[in-house]
Amino acid sequence: MVELVENFKTGIIAYKEPSSIAWGLNYILERLGRNKMGEKGNYLLKQKYNWKTIAEKTLKVYEKLVEKHKSSF
């Protein structure tokens, strides 16, 4: 899910090492803006991954496939 996170805006990207994860957690807990970061992350998640968006993307894939294989029908 790293591709969803805008570092220091919608979340914190940490390496898969305990010290990096600990640093990220401490950073969030020590800052007052952590609520804003969470709100932005939640908004981004809702915009990219909701049923309407998923359905629209799926429909586009089907439409492209139909166009590509139209002559086969």
UniProtKB/TrEMBL annotation:
<protein>
    <recommendedName>
        <fullName>Glycosyl transferase family 1 domain-containing protein</fullName>
    </recommendedName>
</protein>
